[in-house]
Amino acid sequence: MTDKVNWKSGTDVIFRSALLMSGLFFYGLAIAITLRSGLGLGSWDVLHKGFSLHSPLTLGQAGQLTGLVIIVIAFIMGIKPGVGTLANMYFIGFWIDLIIQAQFVPEAAQYGLAAQLLWVAIALVLLGMGSGLYIKAGMGVGPRDSFMLALVKRTGWRVALCRAIIEVTVCLVGWLLGGPVGLATVIVAFGVGPSVELGFRICRVKVQPKDESFSEPNPAVEAAQKEPVNR
Question: What is the pTM (predicted TM-score) of this model?
Answer without folding.
Answer: 0.82
